[in-house]
Amino acid sequence: MASAIQNERLAEYLAAERAVLSGQSYTIGNRTLTRANLSTIRAAIDALIAGGATLDGGKPDTRGMSKRVVFIDGR
After folding, report:
1. SS3 state of residue 61
2. Total number of domains constituting the chain
3. pTM of the complete model
4. What are 10-34's pLDDT values in tens digits?
5. Is residue 67 part of a domain?
6. What number of other Cβ atoms are within 10 A of residue 44's Cβ?
7. Inside any domain, residue 19
8. How many CA atoms lie within 13 A of 66 on its CB side?
């Protein structure tokens, strides 16, 4: 399970990704500036998710999981 710091970093990287996607580059006068490298941000997001970071506070997803119950006769 990921730490709170990893979960916080994931949220910040996702916010950075949204910012980049809303306007990757812009021009002021004759200069064009680029916010950030989207592939670097995506790599960091993927690494954090692979490390277990989540946005829901680390609650495990139990949907679709089954459990097996075995009854034992103790006589």
Report:
1. coil
2. 1
3. 0.61
4. 999 999 899 888 877 778 899 988 8
5. no
6. 16
7. yes
8. 2
